[in-house]
Each structure stands twice: as structure tokens, then as C-alpha cells.
Specification:
- The chain crosses the membrane at residues 6-28.
- Residues 36-63 form a coiled coil.
- The structure is a single chain.
- The model has no long low-confidence stretch (mean pLDDT 85).
- By secondary structure, this protein is mainly alpha-helical.
- It has 2 helices and no strands.
- It has one domain.
């Protein structure tokens, strides 16, 4: 009779343990997916900022290579 209770307790512990393990795996998978989404949005923001900075650099290069700007710098040197 006591052996029946021991076996029943072991089966219950086994079921609870395997269920807890599967829940934990599911939690880790969800957490990893959330991190990937956060990383993707951060990368998208950095790409956008990078494009904006490239545009600003192009404008500054146009200004500096402009003839009137070069003339002003030569006059100021004199």
C-alpha cells in the first residue's frame, strides 16, 4: 500500500517537473524573440540616423567645394 503512494508521488513529481521544464523552455523562446525584435528596431533606428548623417555630410561637402566658399577662404588667408 505504501509503495502505491510512493509510485503515485513519483509520477506526480515527474509530470510536474516535465511541465515546468516545457514552460521554462517556452518562456526562454519568447524572451529571445522579444530581444530580437528590440535589436531589429535598434538597428533600423541606427540605419535611419546613418542615412541622415550621410545626407548632412553631402550637403557640407557641396558647401565646402563651392567656388564662392573657396574664394572666401583664399581672401581670408590674405
Amino acid at each position: 500500500m505504501e509503495n502505491d503512494y510512493v509510485i503515485f508521488a513519483l509520477v506526480v513529481l515527474l509530470v510536474i517537473g516535465s511541465t515546468a521544464t516545457e514552460l521554462f523552455k517556452s518562456y526562454l523562446k519568447t524572451k529571445a524573440q522579444t530581444r530580437n525584435k528590440d535589436n531589429d528596431s535598434a538597428v533600423a533606428e541606427l540605419k535611419q540616423e546613418n542615412n541622415q548623417l550621410r545626407e548632412r555630410i553631402q550637403v557640407l561637402e557641396k558647401i565646402v567645394t563651392e567656388d564662392s566658399h573657396q574664394l572666401k577662404t583664399e581672401i581670408n588667408r590674405l
